[in-house]
């Protein structure tokens, strides 16, 4: 069993109300007078049963336990005489808990009477669990705060969550408060491993049926299951709010379902822990965040109620709210923030249910109902039946059937037809010898291989055949353009993991070069910012001449080599601007043009805006808005309204500043074309000696 840690604790008070005497007689009471007491502490309430037949000296001998969360908050005890149609107040007092000393005494009531009270104080800590007590079984995935493992502890399967903590002492106190929760609506926490530290492991109950997110994907929930789950979620939030705890991370992946179809809440917000899984605005589960939270407000109770409303819609529709905006959520976020757009229940949904969801998602924080009211309304609508388990498993459909893999490619080089008039060499897989991993992204990973005596970069697409074909088709159009990374061929095109073979750029991404310069370290080469700008503009000129939008121009899509060559890559998002018009946003967050952010029709001018942001990177060495400390959603909203733009250095050349600002013009038609940019930077190349500005550390070292 776990041993009790000593590093942090919460004082727990056991309060015993033994008996009372000298109470006043209640005139309206019957001959068989009964007295009872109520004890109030914050939002907590304990009420005894009446003691009949003891005249004015009742005895209860009842006790209850509370956490002393605030030493300045007194315990209020009130005594009542029971009446046929209610109760009559007979006396009360405040008990000071600040001293935290054990007490056993009679205390005087006001206006009259006495009550016998016993107080016992103990310090409770989160149980400490040693590594020897836990067997790690497998990786389950990633939660909001870190990686989650499946393990075995004390004879049962558990979930082990590795946290990333900024303040171990504060985290221990927060965890203690959550671990003390005892409710059928909350996933229990058993203890903590590796604490106190910056990476403690929280050991919690493992719920076998999985998360609500998984069950929604399966679409097998019957009506009463969904209503029961909705009532359980609201009840769990109400339970937390009664104890002044805000969940703060409410969404389907943090709602777990037991084998009998009941919901339990997990991953309650820890202010001292870092969100490591949602490290960008694109990956953050924004549909469940209230508008004020998207705009930077701290988590609060009304924000939880908003999330309950969105969950009600998700349960009703059995789908992810705003799912069509997965590629670029910012147009939908803009409408949520400024137009009051909200997810809607199905057209055939019961009106009362839809009304509750709508009320929960009110823009006015004060107009949202308390979680307790929502729970009461949903619980009252439950049918009086015994739910059947959610998970049956008998006769389930085969939801995913991977296509059979093709035989390995061997022998002579073939041809892969990637589009009309486009053919690429199919290279034999056996001729490659692996070197090392270069990086990974949402569509796959990139490795360096030896192909004969030549080092090449091979990008493997995992489960994305359409994106593979799109990228190959586009890059094949530019194999003779020196400023675009050359596509050499493809490998294993008929397998679930097709590969692109490209020329190898040994110095990697421009962003890496800029970071080394910014930190005052020495790069292997030195390149001029004007040369980089000219090369990228030249590449965009070729791309735009074919009416193609790159849609991902940034310092990670520009590669360098030791020959000082600068080349554009990363064509996975590239699309033609011809039929149909482009409206679906895509790209990297702070490089996206305003028209892309709001979901408008856009053209090659969107790339020019991104190029303008790249110019600020070349001048400052910093990523856009790198020093800005506010919500990403606020920043994107400000960009969409021309309130904010990335900036160059104060002492930047005026002509360079002018080009960057013109590229980032709000009106796409006011931006220069790629061909014009090529001429502008070509005119500066012969006379300019402007290099990347050295970092402060390097400037100081040279003086």
UniProtKB/TrEMBL annotation:
<feature type="domain" description="Protein kinase">
    <location>
        <begin position="134"/>
        <end position="385"/>
    </location>
</feature>
<dbReference type="InterPro" id="IPR001245">
    <property type="entry name" value="Ser-Thr/Tyr_kinase_cat_dom"/>
</dbReference>
<dbReference type="GO" id="GO:0005524">
    <property type="term" value="F:ATP binding"/>
</dbReference>
<dbReference type="InterPro" id="IPR051681">
    <property type="entry name" value="Ser/Thr_Kinases-Pseudokinases"/>
</dbReference>
<keyword id="KW-0808">Transferase</keyword>
<keyword id="KW-0418">Kinase</keyword>
<protein>
    <submittedName>
        <fullName>Serine/threonineprotein kinase</fullName>
    </submittedName>
</protein>
<dbReference type="GO" id="GO:0004674">
    <property type="term" value="F:protein serine/threonine kinase activity"/>
</dbReference>
<dbReference type="Pfam" id="PF07714">
    <property type="entry name" value="PK_Tyr_Ser-Thr"/>
</dbReference>
<dbReference type="InterPro" id="IPR035892">
    <property type="entry name" value="C2_domain_sf"/>
</dbReference>
<dbReference type="InterPro" id="IPR011009">
    <property type="entry name" value="Kinase-like_dom_sf"/>
</dbReference>
<feature type="domain" description="Protein kinase">
    <location>
        <begin position="432"/>
        <end position="688"/>
    </location>
</feature>
<dbReference type="InterPro" id="IPR000719">
    <property type="entry name" value="Prot_kinase_dom"/>
</dbReference>
């Amino acid at each position: 069993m776990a041993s009790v840690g000593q590093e942090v604790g919460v004082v727990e008070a056991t309060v015993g109300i033994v008996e009372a005497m000298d109470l006043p007689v209640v005139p309206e009471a019957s001959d068989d007078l009964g007295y009872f007491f109520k004890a109030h502490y914050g939002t907590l309430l304990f009420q005894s049963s009446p003691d009949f037949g003891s005249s004015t000296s009742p005895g209860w001998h009842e006790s209850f336990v509370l956490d002393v969360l605030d030493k300045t908050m007194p315990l209020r005890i009130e005594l009542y005489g029971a009446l046929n149609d209610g109760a009559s107040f007979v006396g009360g007092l405040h008990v000071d808990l600040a001293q935290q000393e054990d007490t056993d005494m009679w205390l005087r009531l006001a206006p009259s009477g006495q009550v016998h009270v016993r107080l016992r104080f103990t310090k409770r800590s989160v149980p400490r669990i040693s590594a020897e007590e836990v067997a790690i079984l497998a990786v389950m995935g990633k939660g909001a705060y870190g990686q989650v493992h499946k393990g075995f502890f004390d004879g049962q399967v558990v979930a082990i969550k590795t946290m990333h903590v900024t303040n171990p002492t504060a985290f221990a106190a927060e965890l203690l408060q959550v671990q003390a929760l005892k409710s059928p609506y909350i996933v229990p926490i058993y203890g903590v491993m590796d604490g106190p530290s910056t990476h403690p492991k929280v050991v919690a109950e493992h719920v076998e049926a999985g998360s609500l997110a998984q069950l929604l994907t399966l679409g097998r929930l019957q009506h009463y299951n969904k209503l029961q789950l909705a009532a359980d979620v609201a009840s769990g939030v109400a339970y937390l709010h009664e104890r002044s705890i805000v969940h703060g991370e409410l969404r389907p992946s943090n709602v777990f379902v037991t084998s009998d179809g009941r919901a339990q809440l997990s991953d309650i917000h820890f202010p001292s822990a870092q969100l490591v899984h949602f490290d960008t605005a694109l990956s953050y589960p924004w549909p469940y965040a209230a508008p004020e939270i998207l705009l930077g407000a701290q988590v609060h109770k009304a924000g939880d109620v908003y999330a309950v409303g969105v969950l009600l819609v998700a349960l009703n529709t059995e789908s992810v709210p705003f799912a069509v905006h997965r590629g670029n959520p910012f147009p939908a976020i803009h409408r949520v923030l400024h137009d009051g757009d909200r997810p809607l229940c199905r057209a055939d949904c019961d009106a009362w249910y839809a009304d509750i969801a709508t009320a929960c998602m009110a823009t006015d924080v004060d107009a949202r109902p308390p979680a307790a009211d929502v729970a009461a309304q949903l619980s009252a609508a439950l049918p009086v039946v015994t739910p059947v388990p959610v998970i049956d498993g008998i006769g389930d459909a085969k939801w995913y059937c991977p296509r059979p893999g093709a035989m390995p490619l061997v022998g002579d080089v073939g041809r892969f037809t990637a589009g009309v008039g486009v053919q690429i060499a199919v290279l034999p897989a056996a001729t490659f010898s692996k070197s090392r991993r270069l990086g990974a992204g949402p569509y796959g990973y990139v490795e360096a291989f030896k192909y004969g005596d030549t080092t090449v970069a091979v990008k493997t697409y995992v489960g994305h055949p359409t994106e593979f074909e799109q990228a190959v088709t586009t890059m094949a159009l530019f194999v003779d353009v020196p400023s675009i990374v050359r596509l050499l061929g493809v490998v294993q095109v008929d397998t679930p993991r097709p590969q692109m073979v490209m020329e190898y750029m040994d110095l990697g991404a421009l962003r890496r070069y800029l970071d080394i310069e910014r930190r005052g370290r020495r790069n292997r080469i030195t390149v001029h910012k004007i040369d980089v700008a000219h090369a990228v503009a030249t590449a965009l000129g070729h791309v735009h001449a074919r009416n193609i939008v790159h849609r991902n121009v940034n310092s990670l899509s520009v590669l360098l080599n030791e020959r000082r060559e600068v080349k554009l890559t990363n064509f996975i998002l590239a699309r033609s601007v011809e039929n149909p018009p482009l409206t679906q946003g895509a790209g990297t967050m702070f490089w996206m043009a305003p028209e892309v952010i709001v979901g408008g029709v856009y053209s090659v001018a969107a790339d020019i805006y991104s190029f303008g942001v790249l110019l600020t990177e070349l001048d400052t060495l910093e990523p856009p808005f790198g020093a800005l400390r506010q919500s990403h959603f606020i920043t994107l909203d400000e960009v969409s309204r021309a309130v904010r733009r990335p900036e160059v250095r104060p002492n930047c050349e005026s002509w360079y500043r002018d080009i960057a600002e013109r590229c980032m013009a709000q009106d796409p038609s006011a931006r220069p074309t790629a061909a014009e940019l090529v001429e502008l930077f070509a005119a500066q190349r012969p006379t300019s000696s402007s290099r990347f500005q050295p970092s402060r550390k390097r400037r100081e070292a040279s003086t």
